């Protein structure tokens, strides 16, 4: 009841917002200040140099997390193009768009998302609702909340085919919700005739495979997690993804923001309700920064003239990851100790290139008698990875991030080659 009051209540604030709009107009005219500073670089704390791209090379190589520091250099090279300055008076209101049920979506962010999807061609945006979230992590929870049936006698099962992204299980179960619970590997899910939610991650984290739903029963609800469906990681197919609920994030590109493209208005509203209840909206500052960076990604392809010394974002990223995979594969090939999955080639409708998926993670297998690959690499060789057992799979596998800074990646490949040669 209170929430309803809150969501509807914003309409009452429309007149207040309109007044604020007029004040903003005055700002724009220079009556109070220069509004154009909103998107320019003026803040001293932001002038501080980003962390050096040459960290100290310590003995321990930590590739456990998918921390995408590989991209840092590109953003340094774009200089002030992606810098956003936000004066203190801006964003005092909770509301971003009072005409919209999704009132915390900054229109600039929504427009940047649509523009990018249209450029890349990786997802349908027409007749879709955009729900913005603090990363795909929050949106995943919002979807569970939105699609889980109310008044069921037991929580609905959430499943995903193993190996699955570690966090699905952790997030689903951490609050011991009465609405949903983790049901494990979708391939062995047997609760016939019971409703379920299946998460389809493609390309998949951890193993990079391209996936479709596996349970395929009519009581199922599908969440497509397309966090890695971007053209530096995999070829984009001719028809844009057109699923009912699609999660996207640019946390593996630029920074931690996500959005969902949702077909059904009721589901989008319920997701909005979850985000209102959990965080009362999504930081406008983040959305504005996200919008700026997404615009620059699109500009780097569509307005190349403004990017004399910098390659278009997806070309730069594709080339960098392609080189990393080439080096990794040749280091692994020198012995029979390890193996990596092979991926089918596909023609990318965005770039025109034909290539095999080059995932953000390497799903490395210890061949032979090594049963605990994580422990072998950690205790024997000071390389920290994440064991396959956290992904519902065998400890013979480990997941390794392919996205660290250059120096760390180089050091890792060199060390792998040394292990292979001893
Ligand atoms: C498949 C997948 N989905 C979702 C997420 C979470 O994304 P975010 O960082 O935007 O919360 C990740 C992050 O690693 C991921 O790999």
UniProtKB/TrEMBL annotation:
PANTHER family (alphabetical): BIFUNCTIONAL ASPARTATE AMINOTRANSFERASE AND GLUTAMATE/ASPARTATE-PREPHENATE AMINOTRANSFERASE-RELATED (PTHR43795), TRYPTOPHAN AMINOTRANSFERASE-RELATED PROTEIN 2 (PTHR43795:SF22)
Domain Alliinase C-terminal intervals: 61-418
Family membership noted in the UniProt record: Belongs to the alliinase family.
EC identifiers of the protein: 2.6.1.99
Protein name: Tryptophan aminotransferase-related protein 2
Signal peptide span: 1-17
UniProt xrefs under Pfam families: Alliinase_C
Tagged with keyword Signal: yes
Cofactor(s) in the UniProt record: pyridoxal 5'-phosphate
MF term (GO), any: L-tryptophan:pyruvate aminotransferase activity
